[in-house]
Amino acid sequence: MAKKAEEKELTIEEAFAKVDEKIKALEEEEVTLEESFKFFEEGMELLKYCNESIDKVEKKVQKIMQDGQTEDFE
Amino acid sequence: MRNENVYTVSYINSFIKNMFQQEPLLNNLTVKGEVSNCKYHTSGHIYFTLKDASGAISCVMFKGNRMTGLKFQMKEGQSVLVSGTIDTYERDGKYQLYARKIELDGEGALYEKFEKLKKELEERGLFAPEYKQPVPKYIKTLGVVTASTGAAVRDIINISTRRNPYVQIILYPAIVQGDMAADSIVNGIRVLEEAGVDTMIVGRGGGSIEDLWAFNEEKVAEAIFNCSVPIISAVGHETDTTIADYVADLRAPTPSAAAELAVFDVSLFLQDIRTYQNILYRRMSGELEKVKTRALNDKRLLDHLSPEARIRDKRMRAAQCSDKLERLMLDLIKGEKHRLDVDIERLKALSPLDKLHSGFSYVSGSDGKNIRSISQVKEKDSITIYVSDGAIKATADSVESRKYGKES
User: What pTM value is reported for the model?
Assistant: First the structure.
């Protein structure tokens, strides 16, 4: 339960939260066209990041032993 | 020589019953023994015998006590603790134990141990919500500390890979019951923490309280508490709650549920991304639409205010004015012409020639004056009668007065 050191890299959750911010910013009445382009681009960039954060390779279940050695399970 | 006192069976049974009932110990006691001759009667009552190495006692649990007093299926050979009252059964002259509560032997002791440790760890703050780590929503590696055989590991693997086959599962094959279980689980947590998994599931399938006991051990609780990786506990069934469940960052009712909590659904994730993309596109095109509309409005406004538009406007007004003038002028001319026509007609009506044409005559005397009265003419006077095509010279034969209608 001890807290882990803060990670520098953006987590997917944080990225989604930021996308939400961009969407909110885009909804603002006062937003300029330049700003809206910026928000849009940043939002799309973040979504790309989320999508790419998922390593799309199917994994085999690994078995780990006491000494840290792993092998395929089953 | 026979004893003087002779009693009936009923009397003596009743006498003994009374003795039993007077004895406080027999009215509330717990007896330990092994179950034999256990019969679940169709009436709902349970009849069994409790025995140990050298004796036996008949027992009965009435239907009405079963809901609250018995939490398991009684079987032959089980060691149990039966709480209730010992009373006589007068019909057979037997005494028996009327059970209010039946517990498996060892359960009560374990339960007390559990409560004691729970209280102690709670006081030490091991269950405090402020120490709970949030379980990350999107993980890449899942650690599992459980037995490498059995339903629990199957369920976790099946559900995890179904939801998201891209998550790496690392299993620590732990011993989950017996004397070595606690150490094995503690090791598993440590090894997987070092391996750097994102979330850990620690648990096992259902079993008796003894089977699950390792998850009630202090060292397991401490290992869970000290682990830097968020831990989801998944011990037994929904109704089993262990110390591990209290101390874990998140408690899952079953191993399957733990997998659902630990591993995000990749198809939902991809769907979320698409949804967000659509929202962004929609907002952006909305923004562009707004700008376009504004540009169009501005253009209209500018067009309207341009010198060209002003000239066009003035020209139009000039044209309108000239049209109006023309129309007014024409109306005027038409009016005048009409008046002229009317005058002509009136003049025509007044023309003397016209009257001659219609048969009237003009009569003048010798002096050339128009004769309007008989007073201007005497007999034999010469008169001239003018008709439409000439004049007739005539002499007045006679003059006589005549009245024509009303005298004017």
Answer: 0.58
